[in-house]
Design goal:
370 residues; mainly alpha; Cyclin A, domain 1; 52% helix; globular
């Protein structure tokens, strides 16, 4: 009887050992993979300002309020336009249906110009002492990698950058806290947009544990208080979805290619501090212009229909279009490659390899009155 029990125990022992070994191997594999994928931003404090196109040196700060730089005011919202959709859209996305489109568009246009939801156009010059536009761009480039690592939806990334810009518009921080601001803003945006957002420990880990959980939570609280818990606001992505639907008005532009290149250009705009001055709808409309120009350089990308839908004439978008065009041609931010590498992938049809004409014909900025 004892021999049978010993035999059974001996037979069971290898199985237990193999199961334990398998669990240990799985844990080790996960740890190794996570360590390999970590994209901690440790270089930010020491990077020079020569990464991007240099900006004019900051002038000495005026001590009196009367001499302080006056931040640029957002342009007035254009007249709301009704997004044109077909009858077969009534069973699709309700935000694209005719019964809702006009009211939603009007609401979003009124919301994007509210001062409480707008960053200051010149906060680097007037508020920040230790943080530069280059550092902001490096942070955003890194956050793109973090969003990819955790498979976050694009709206989370856009909201994150919006929170960062709004916070920096009224609070000066040192460069050592800039990455902390970035992960804390992404934590909030993840809670707002994601079904299963990463937890605080995930964001500590992605910084190579540069910050402790308590520091992230405290910064999260500071952001919420500064933004007065106004966490929902339309972003470039919000308007891009609406405008892209109308830009596919004919078969000249393959729908997937147009969508991917639009997403690519919109994310590039997040890198550029100069784009902070533009309303999200302006950036979205400009992205559609440049995307269509890239796919069909010989045809004026701005149609009468797009002018009606977006509420903007091409001439009104010229400054923003030029900025995005320069980003696409690597005239700005050429050393920041996270977004370009992301859209080189096959799943995005490698759209970052597509380039528009070097110069945009002046005739393309003429108003479409026909």
């Amino acid at each position: 009887m004892a021999d049978k029990e010993n035999s059974a125990a001996a037979a069971a022992q290898p199985r237990l050992t193999r199961a334990a070994a398998k669990r240990a191997a799985a844990v080790t594999a996960v740890a190794v993979a996570a360590k390999r994928k970590r994209v901690a931003l440790s270089e930010l404090p020491t990077l020079s300002n020569a990464v991007l196109k240099p900006r004019q040196p900051q002038q000495p700060r005026a001590k009196k309020a009367s001499h302080a730089a006056e931040p640029k005011k957002p342009a007035p919202a254009p007249a709301p336009a009704v997004v044109a959709v077909g009858d077969d859209d009534e069973e699709g996305d309700p935000q694209l249906c005719a019964p809702y489109a006009s009211d939603i568009n009007s609401y979003l246009r009124s919301m994007e110009v509210q001062a409480k939801r707008r960053p200051a156009a010149d906060y680097v010059e007037t508020v920040q002492v230790d943080v530069t536009a280059n550092m902001r761009s490096i942070l955003v480039d890194w956050l793109v990698e973090v969003a990819e690592e955790y498979k976050l939806v694009s709206d989370t990334l856009y909201l994150t950058v919006s929170y960062i810009d709004r916070f920096l518009s009224s609070n000066a921080i040192n460069r050592q806290k800039l990455q902390l601001l970035g992960v804390s803003a992404m934590l909030i945006a993840s809670k707002y947009e994601e079904i299963s957002p990463p937890n605080v420990e995930d964001f500590c880990y992605i910084t190579d544990n540069t910050y402790m959980k308590q520091e992230v939570v405290k910064m999260e609280r500071d952001i919420l208080n500064v933004l007065k818990f106004e966490m929902g606001n339309p972003t470039t992505k919000t308007f891009l979805r609406m405008f892209m639907r109308s830009s596919q008005e004919d078969d000249k532009y393959p729908s997937l290619s147009l969508e991917f290149i639009g997403s690519y250009l919109a994310e590039l705009s997040l890198l550029e501090y100069g784009c902070v001055q533009f309303l999200p709808s302006v950036v979205a409309a400009s992205v559609v212009f440049v995307a269509r120009l890239t796919l069909d350089p010989d045809t004026n990308p701005w149609s009468k229909k797009l002018q009606e839908v977006t509420g903007y004439r091409a001439s009104e978008l010229k400054d923003c279009i030029t900025c995005i065009h320069d980003l696409q041609l690597n005239r700005r931010g050429s050393s920041l490659v996270a977004i370009r590498d992301k859209y080189k992938q096959h799943r995005f049809k490698g759209v970052s390899a597509l380039l528009p004409p070097v110069e945009i014909p002046a005739s393309y900025f003429q108003d479409r009155n026909e």
